[in-house]
Design brief:
CATH superfamily: Trypsin-like serine proteases
Shape: globular
Protein name: Putative secreted protein
Order of helices and strands: EEEEHEEHEEEHEEEEEEE
Keywords: Signal
CATH class: Mainly Beta
GO biological process, one term: proteolysis
CATH topology: Thrombin, subunit H
GO molecular function: serine-type endopeptidase activity
Largest sheet: 6 strands, antiparallel, barrel
Number of strands: 16
Helix content: under 10%
CATH architecture: Beta Barrel
Strand content: 35-45%
Structural class: mainly beta
Oligomer: single chain
Distance between the termini: 30 Å
Radius of gyration: 16 Å
Number of domains: 1
Length: 248
């Protein structure tokens, strides 16, 4: 299965590319916008998108949407996270070293309902992640469309909070299925840090980094895709307000 939380509403550019940082030969790599596959102890599997990579002390963590790591979504306990091709990103011990939050039901018609949809897991020592880049390869099932949506690597700065200044501006997301798509911010909840944006996304894009272009020329993550529908409004939970939990 692929994740994108459904709501009761029918809601869900190019940026300057930089050269890809060289990876350690033979190492497993990952980055914001990459597909991740979560496997549970009952054999169930789900695809989501890595939001970002965060270093805490001597460890490095992958961040995604909380529902991607929620046992109730699988009917079993998540025990492994891999790349789409099956390379190990995190085992059961690494997942246990992380955690997830999942509560609230914010959607476009109920923007004040609040939402926490944030998950994190420690990356295996064998992984050589890109700490400062976002990129994506679209896999919509439409061969003529995918090259147009595939996003080349862009350099990232520190995540930033959700503010009222975002409303009316253009933001972008990189997802495992729909790649790089952009659209306007419809509204925000600055108290509980949600962003409501008209950006195409489908199941498998959950966790996608939502970002803005900063005055420093870098992109800055403001949220992670939680729920919505493919063609109208999608809801992103703020990222920065949860990062203090990673590695805690």
């Amino acid at each position: 299965m692929s994740f994108l939380r459904k709501t009761t509403v029918l809601g869900a550019l190019a940026l300057t590319a930089t050269a890809v940082s060289p990876a350690v030969a033979g190492a497993t790599t990952t980055h914001g916008g990459a597909p991740i596959v979560i496997a549970a102890d009952n054999g169930a599997e789900g695809m989501c998108t890595l939001n970002s990579v965060v270093k805490s002390g001597d460890d490095v963590y992958g961040v995604t949407a909380g529902h991607c790591l929620d046992p109730e979504e699988f009917g079993g306990q998540p025990v492994k996270v891999t790349t789409e091709s099956g390379e190990l990103l995190a085992d059961a011990e690494d997942i246990a070293a992380g955690g997830h939050l999942l509560d609230g039901g914010a959607n476009y018609l109920e923007p004040n309902a609040g939402l926490n949809d944030f998950g994190w897991f420690r990356l295996d020592d064998s992984v050589d992640p890109d700490l400062n880049g976002i990129s994506s390869t679209a896999d919509t099932g439409i061969p003529l469309l995918d090259p147009l949506l595939t996003g080349q690597r862009i350099e990232t700065g520190a995540p930033v909070p959700v503010t009222q200044n975002l409303v009316g501006g253009i933001v972008c997301k990189d997802g495992a299925k729909t790649g790089r798509t952009c659209g306007p911010v419809i509204s925000v909840n600055t108290n509980s840090q949600e962003v409501f944006a008209a950006i195409p996304a489908i199941a498998g894009d959950s966790g996608s980094p939502l970002y803005v272009l900063g005055p420093d020329g870098k992109t800055h993550v403001v949220g992670a895709l939680s729920n919505g529908s493919p063609v109208l409004f999608n809801v992103f939970d703020g990222t920065q307000n949860h990062l203090h939990r990673v590695g805690a």
